[in-house]
Specification:
- There is one protein chain.
- Helices cover 73% and strands 1% of the residues.
- By secondary structure, it is mainly alpha-helical.
- It has three domains: 178 residues, no CATH class; 210 residues, no CATH class; 83 residues.
- The strands form two sheets. The protein has a two-stranded antiparallel ribbon. A two-stranded antiparallel sheet has the order 3-4.
- The longest helix has 39 residues.
- The relative contact order is 0.10.
- The C terminus is likely disordered.
Length: 652
Amino acid sequence: MSDKASGLPITLRWLTGAAAIGSAFLAMDSLRLFSERPLLDFIITVQNHYYYALMGLLLPLCYLLNPTIKNPKGIWFDGLLAIAACGACIFFFVNAETMLDFGWEFGAPDYAVWVSYLLWILIMEAVRRSGGMVLFGLVFVFSLYPIFAESLPGPISGMASTPAETAAYHVMSIESILGLPFRAFAQLVIGFLIFGIALQQTGGGRFFINLAFAVFGHVRGGSAKVAIVSSGLMGSMSGSVITNVLTTGQMTIPAMQNNGMEKEYAAGVESCASTGGVLLPPIMGSTAFVMATFLNVPYTTVALAAAIPALLYFFGLFVQVDAYAARKGLEGTPREELPSLSGTMKQGWFYIVAFMVLIFLLVYLQREAVAPFIATGLLLVLNQFSKEHRWEIKQVGSFLVATGKLLMELLTIMAGVGLIVGALSVTGLSGTLVNDLLFLAGDSTLLLLLMGAFSSFLLGIGMTVTAAYVFLAIVLAPALIQGGLDPMSVHLFILYWGMLSFITPPVALGAFAAASIAGSSALATGFTAMRLGSIIYFIPFFFVLEPAMVMSGTWTDTLIATVKVAIGIILIASCLQRYLIGVGFLDREGPVGISGRLLIALGGGLIALPATEVIDINVGQMTLFIAGAIAAILGVLMSRATYSETSSIADA
């Protein structure tokens, strides 16, 4: 017997829901939300107890929810793997204190080593099922690397370990499977994932879309601006580009098409907005909390640093959409056909209250770990006062199943990425890679940045956002920081460039997902998204060269840098769309018109370019600004259509 709403057998739904409840309880108890002392302190005496218990609850679900054999008769194989995973985790849970007391990660009994082999293999299989073949391939190669490190040539050689030593270190140390990515998940991320699911399950997506329509629906290109706002907000909650496209895109893409936008353009807007949502505070998916753990700073520091670059990216999308709508003559939706702002707020006021409480706890009280649990509890209580969204038993079940699925997916991915961390740690390869990158770049910070951008883009292909970021933060970030760049800027830089594969062909997974909804060409949608999101290719270089943009400077420096980049974005976007706000069409044909538009883009780049001393080009910012302004003005004059061309355009 199965539940039609989820397509899962009833028994599996109960197991998934129970695992979600157990995981949430463990997380809240470890944070002392129920009392001054954890309720389970009589059995969870060390932190590793909590980690293995969490893994024992969630890891077995991976084999049951992602079966290798689709035939129901093959469930015995996946069930066997689930039982083995649970048994292995129970073994390490029982022996957690002994492992710490006697240092089993460096000298474990034979029976513990064999159980370590088992859990290592099971986690690898879980990564394959949850994270895909690209991540599995990376994890597979790196996790085995310590065994062969000594026999490898030159720069990729390292300290060797026997298979038994490698297995014990991977499973029983706090540097590998239980390393920083897993600990960030267990200590910080779980609550925010639950909050995001609660927001979706209570109708938050529809509320944000209605709110965006009420505010922006009447302006030109309003449907696309609605998509940018709503998808950006929901993307910040979900942390998944693909999930966001497939949920909010179901509503925003048809609305844009009905407003007169081409299929490829509507899908491109949605994919760019969903991609940007993962970069947008207050939540930024789960990556912001992992980043805070890496940098050893409060989460609010990361959120504040990420705010200006993210808002500038969305500003660039707004400018391009507005210029496109002006060119196409797309009017907004009449106000009488739109939801009213007051009516929307009346129906969804409790979302705003929950958000305000969350931000108050995060920013003012700085209670990052407990904030999402309190906000989720408040949201669920207030939701019961809504006639439209009030839950019954069925909705509670769907919420628990969705929570169990998401927690399982991220736990397996973090455990898998932890294997990479452990391999680099035990062999010392991470330090070698840093030195090799610095050697290849020489004294050129610009070359180091370009190498970093290219590496981040490649490693981001086919991997989840968080997995790509963690890998890059270990392998690449130290080299850029040792090259003299600001640590916060560097970590945001690799996050941005790791995200670009979602809108950049030939991969462009976000754009391809949007194309499936719009019924458009996947490749054409990818190139449209790439052009629309082109600002995101420049912004990381701007803030990594000008740390004031990530709040690493005075307010004056931050304001000046932000205004300059905003002006540059307007000019670059006008070149791409051949329309400049306040000036009009830049449609002149022939070499003169093309040269003029290129000059506008060059001028925008020069104006936005921050201090160049970092890349060994000693040109003052005022000089850059004046040169950029002259180039932009000259470009506008050259690219404006003549009277006869304007007439022919109007006739056409």
